[in-house]
Design goal:
Layout (H helix, E strand, L loop, with lengths): L2 H20 L10 H4 L2 E10 L3 E10 L4 E10 L8 E15 L6 E24 L4 E24 L3 E13 L4 E13 L1
Antiparallel strand pairs: 1-2, 1-8, 2-3, 3-4, 4-5, 5-6, 6-7, 7-8
Length: 190
């Protein structure tokens, strides 16, 4: 298992543990976290069997447990051993649980559905056996992406949060692919 996958799983276990301790406590005046601080900006990382992307993210929660999130990200590798990506996507989120607990932690769980656009720059090398030469090819590929899953977010000290998301995501129509995906980052709520 990759080191990044182990870190994401450990972070998710931490969020589950802390949120589970909060479920039995009486709600106090902490519900405003996702109402007064309904917006958030996040630096994030996304890893899937399809691609890995790093980027910036904006989120907004509404009164009816509905959230919207948009992400702009990409990956760039100048030595051309891997493909480069540029990704823009949006998520619709539905909160299924929110804890209210003593300082300094508040948590929530939510379902998410995602749709977006990926522009990738692919590199390949073609070997010609007859004359023992090779030709490098580069092409730009346009793809749609979609996914769904579950997420958890733990808010520290009213402003800083660490969301973790897991799900299935896929790219289509060029080289259709579906696989497990995980995302995490650090978000500032305002």
């Amino acid at each position: 298992m990759k080191k990044s996958s182990k870190l994401i799983i450990a972070a998710f276990a931490l969020i589950l543990g802390i949120s589970a301790t909060a479920t039995g406590k009486e709600k106090i005046e902490r519900e405003w976290i996702f109402h007064d601080n309904a917006c958030g900006a996040k630096v994030m990382g996304w890893n899937s069997s399809v691609n890995g992307v790093y980027g910036l993210n904006y989120q907004r929660w509404f009164e009816n447990n509905i959230g919207l999130e948009t992400t702009f990200g990409g990956s760039f590798n100048p030595d051309r051993k891997w493909d480069n990506y540029l990704c823009v996507n949006g998520q619709l989120q539905y909160r299924i649980f929110q804890s209210s607990t003593d300082k300094p932690f508040v948590g929530q769980f939510y379902f998410w559905g995602m749709g977006g656009y990926i522009l990738s720059q692919e590199y390949s090398t073609i070997y010609f056996v007859e004359d023992e030469t090779e030709k490098n090819e580069e092409r730009i590929v346009s793809n749609a992406c979609a996914g769904l899953g579950i997420g958890a977010e733990l808010v520290f000290w009213e402003r800083i949060s660490m969301p973790v998301e897991f799900g299935l995501c896929g790219d289509f129509p060029y080289k259709p692919n579906v696989g497990f995906a995980a995302s995490t980052g650090i978000r500032f709520r305002f």
